[in-house]
Amino acid sequence: MSNLVTGLVETFSPRRNARHGPLPSLLVVMTVVTGLVDAFSYLVLGHVFVANMTGNVVFLGFALAGAPGFSITASFAAIAAFVLGAGLGGRLYAKGRAHRGTLLYRASFIQAVFLLSGMILALQVTSPANGGYRYALIGVMGIAMGVQNATARKLAVPDLTTTVLTLTITGMVADLGDVASVGPANARRLIAILSMFVGGLVGAVLVLRSALFSPLLIATILIGSIALVARLLSRGDEQWHHT
Prior knowledge:
Blueprint: H1 2-12, H2 23-44, H3 53-64, H4 72-96, H5 100-122, H6 131-155, H7 166-174, H8 184-209, H9 214-233
């Protein structure tokens, strides 16, 4: 238990010269963003995710089978936009691979621009969104989350992928028998699960009880804040800056 508590503390208050520096806490915020935007996309745009591509692949199968409420074009559009964003994130890494702080700054800035575009589009829609606005929102949000997912992968902080929880939950339970693993690793896993849950809960409450664009507004503010923090923390030469 003490190892778990230590891991929880170090995620948000890392030791000096920690291998990943402030990256874990920033990726936790990105995980909250995933919950927010997927709550919006699923509840407002129909049965489609913009961050969880596993769900979209399954939804595409449902749609092809003729299940009601699922759209072939919406699922395919979300996957295509995500792939485009992931490719963009990969190019950012190729240009600045020697500095993780710079990578996070550039990627989160671009992501914030796309999320802001989505929020502006969301001001024009009612639930459920239809027609051109629906696909425009799927496009810009899918690209934003593709950039985020590729960036998290390149930053390579263990157990903080920001969008995928299946392996996170599996690892947390499977490693319970290994006392040495019940520490920082399971702390990050637990935080990741709770972060996405909180993001999804808050996003759903806002969609159902407030303005539809509210989850995207919060997501944009959070990602914009990450971009600013990453920019400030990228100065100098710290151990965590390097891959």
